[in-house]
Amino acid sequence: MADYATLLRDHVTLTCRSVDRIFLQAYVPRLQSVGWVCRFLRWQRGFFIPSSAAFGKIGDAYVAEVARFAKANGIPVRRFAKGERKEEIARPYIEAAAAGGTSRVALIGIAPEKAVRWKSWKARGQEHAAHPHMEWGRQNVFVNHYYFYLWDAEWGPAFWKASAYAPYPVWLWLNGHEWAKRQLAKAGVGFTALDNGFASCQDPALLQRVCDRLGPGAVTGFFWRWQARLPSPFTREDLRAGYVHELAFRQFEVSGTRVSGRPAAGRAFFEGLIRDHLDPGRPDQVSLTFGRKVTARTPGAFRTQVITRGVDPQVTCYYKSSRLKQYFKEHRALRTELVVCDTRDFGAGRRVTYENWNALRLAGEHASQRLCDAEAASARPAPDVATLSKVTRPSLTGDGQHAPALRFGDARVMALMAATAGFCHLIAGFDNKALARRMRALLAEDYSSRHATYDLRRLRRKQIIARIPGTHRYQLTQTGRAVAVLFTKAHGRVLGPGLAALDPRLPGDLARRSPLALAWKDLGLQRLGSAGNYVLLISPSGALPKLLLQRVAEAKATKNRMHFDIVTPDIDAEAARLEGIGARRVETQARTEFGNHWVIMADPEGNEFCVCDSGQGSAAEPG
């Protein structure tokens, strides 16, 4: 398989870093508290008794204004039914508006959706008063939302969603790639578009400068331009009095695209990359996106190992509320995206300001680059002999501190390497707590924060990890990733299977023909004895029941009548470990019942078992 560096050197024809999808919410700061709500109704709008009934009158006027606006401008209005795909319905209207070349509303859609509104009620004891005192609170309701699907000369396709209920929030959807396309078209620069990006450009350097120029000024300009054109529950007097919207981030995507000049080679590289990183990378999710809806009733098994025509592989790593994903777009471009769903995950505020915008874009570019660097490091040659000798033997640091050995094959060292090499640490690194949690799952024994402190210290002294400045979090160094990947791959793919197959106590025919016995043995069980087609496995402590495996001629035909439960404190980490030694997930989602959680899996021959959390399961129970 060509490594990442080879792909970039020989096959990439265009590289582009840009802000991608932007989902914003506009809110009115002066309608976020009860005092300001009452002040708005009483003194700004002149209602003698501030109540939600007054807001109802304002909402009715807004609905009537939307109807007049649609009729006056010849805009089609569509009521969306439940389950309809709004974007697909609106697409032909937006394309027709784009053909006109001027900014306009292509379609107004109406859909009932959940929202939070201000509601008032008479205070206790005031039910029959002529001028009652009103109490206020927020209420969840299903109300009509108005989708204004737009074609904008600067931004291309966009939508504006509003409601007739206070506090009158507005939602915006914009796309940075579409904005860049409009700017290149104005400059007369030729380009070939992807569905959401660029396949080629006459001037790649200019394309990157255009993408870098996009900032919050263009976003706020779009908002106020359309605020003046679209119906609003606020009057000019309201705006002059300070009842104006401010913009906040709801979702912010930063992407990096590398277009391959040899699409077949690029796709083969990415599929090989997924297979190559299932064990050392430990991605939180390796998903397949099919061209049809897949439900629990869809027949057949869906495995990440099988990638066929019409299936797009995708690697996704989660960090708090955000996620980093990578996929091969339209079979010709490697796309890496950071999807920020909560700006606080990266220490940025939610308001749309230059400071927050730049912080989020920088976080996205760094996360994407770290993922690509990690993939490149995994494909590079192993560390030299001197580096390995320094790692596996006791040594001294430059200031004379003792650095204990990290011996290959030691159970704790191997778990440590696997835990630190995970792609989930690429976004913001890992700390003592995260390391302890993953180590407990990999070692299946007590591992406290004090153990993690000691291991972090020796990893730092061996220059395997480095502290992120100003934090208590760590990341692998370039040398550290090379060592961790070598240890993990060599032990999991060469040493473990090789020694198991060469075990003289294992019958030759089973060693050659029975991946089942090898898979269950990799759980940590020891072989007590064997005879003919039988293998007896036990746990080293003798605490678990014995497991007798018999090889038979016929294949598994029906669901298990009895199955095993593997109890672990971290279901996801244990499931990933089991997938690395041949197991597969029968269901992609974990099940929950009576407060317990488990994942259904199957061994190489289809025998089902469960991976359960520490509060669920026994050694064997009815299936």
Describe this structure in words.
- This protein is of the alpha+beta class.
- Among the domains are: 183 residues, no CATH class; 99 residues, Orthogonal Bundle (Arc Repressor Mutant, subunit A), CATH 1.10.10.10; 111 residues, Roll (2,3-Dihydroxybiphenyl 1,2-Dioxygenase, domain 1), CATH 3.10.180.
- The protein is built from 18 helices and 26 strands.
- It has an 11-stranded mixed beta sheet with strand order 2-3-4-5-6-1-9-13-12-11-10. Strands 21, 22, 23, 24, 25 and 26 form a 6-stranded mixed beta sheet that branches.
- α12 crosses α13 and α12 packs across α15.
- The radius of gyration is 30 Å and the shape is globular.
- The C terminus is likely disordered.
- Major β-sheet annotation: 11 strands, mixed
- Helix share, percent: 25-40%
Structure class: alpha+beta
Biggest sheet: strands side by side, in what order? 2-3-4-5-6-1-9-13-12-11-10
- Principal-axes geometry comes out as globular
Strand content: 25-35%
Radius of gyration, in angstroms, nearest whole number: 30 Å
Nearest-integer average pLDDT: 81
Number of helices: 18
Spans where pLDDT lies below 50 across 5 or more residues? 279-296, 298-311, 616-623
